[in-house]
Write a structure and sequence with these properties.
mainly alpha, 0% strand
Length: 292
Amino acid sequence: MTGSAQQGHSLKLASGALVLGGMMWGLYWIPVRYFVDQGLEGAWPGIVMYSAALLFLLPLLWRGRHGLARRWQDLMFSGMFTGAAFGLFTISLVYTDVVRAILLFYLTPVWGTILGRVFLGEHLTRTRVLGLICGLGGMAIVLGGGQGIPWPSNVGDWAALVSGMAWAVGTLGLYRSSGISVPGQVFAFIAGALMLSLISLVFSAGGVQEQSAIVGVLPIAILSVLYTLPMIFLTIWPATLLTPARVGLLLMSEVVVGLISAAVFSGEPFGLREATGAVLIVSAAVLEIARG
């Protein structure tokens, strides 16, 4: 196999892996809600899953520990923002509807446009303006519901919004740390999520409903590693090979699977308003991808 053919095969494999990773993210709300049903509130579902994942990940990092130590600044930057996005998204799934959490997170193109204009002086082309209108319009529809000003109504809505902002910034860190091993990037991702979740406990009124709850879910938390670690690896590894535009397009599988699974299994409302908001927000993402 020639070098170009091998590269093409690698890109196809990465593309398929990313679609699968996105589909797994679309179902991620199910284990989160399971831990909520078992008595864990707020950031605790994420904390038990992140802790278990890190325990299994550490042996993979031992051989490359010296290289990771030399790149600790890049790891800290990427972990701080992408991990925050992961942690906040998990918290949002606890406090708000699944559909709202997914759609509000996917306003990332809106925040990318605003950040690019304010801090980088990027020009607002017609495509970007149209994407901005679609994204903000979709957000207004999802948050509004005919009940006055379209404003986040709970902690979960805010967490989902801020998680999308953090992801928009954190993708820059992933790009800068592309020379770091994938296990190292995954470690920064999960460690950042764990740190944010632990810090959030200080500001959270919710905790563990029963002290025995954590002990009771430990076996399932360990089993959750079989889901969360592959999901994260299938997201991080392809992002080191594919262009940001292609990554954004293929990760749309999360939106599709997340919305369908939530509509069928969560028992939460999904009607014309949610569908219209979803179309507008996904359109904003597609316009940003087409521009890139």
